[in-house]
Amino acid sequence: MKKYGVAVLGFLILGFLGMQFSAFTHEFDNPPISNEPEWPDAYTAGLARRACYDCHSNETHWPWYAYTWPMGSTIEYDVETGREVLNFSEWPSDCCSDKLVEQMAIVVNNGEMPLPYYEALHPEAQLTFAERGRLTNGLLKMMTQSGDALDKEDQE
Length: 156
Ligand code: HEC
Description:
By secondary structure, the protein is mainly α. The chain contains eight helices and no strands. 60% of the residues lie in helices and 0% in strands.
């Protein structure tokens, strides 16, 4: 019985090391930038870059712990889903639905983004109350700049 326990433990340790090895050698991708949004001002762009770009752009800074398991797969999953929802590096040229910009303003204003675990690991990405206000404001400006799609949608 004891031998059996040792074998299981050995197996688990080997599995763990195997996972570490594959995480360590994993290559993360930052695809090329095809189009970026027209930010209303450099300040808004800077805030977005600071707080959102790691998960919503192709300019992700992959931290060292992304090369460990299981952190790496969690981070990669978040970046992949983040990029799918909105990607500042592959911004649609017919500028995005205003709904999306509005959604951004809402999540920023409500403090739902950046994701809390990310903020804990990246104090520099945290937005102060005032910065949240200014990023929201900048995003709303983008919304008006990109046309009146929202009004049209509302009228339909
Ligand atoms: C740690 C990675 C990460 C960071 C940093 C981050 N996001 Fe996200 N974001 C995600 C993921 C993952 C999703 C999709 C799953 C979800 O909605 O939680 C998402 C979803 C969203 C959505 C869609 C929400 C919805 O309700 O459908 C918006 C809008 C958004 N993010 C905006 C932002 C903005 C703006 C910032 C910067 C202030 C930001 N995010 C920072 C990972 C991130």
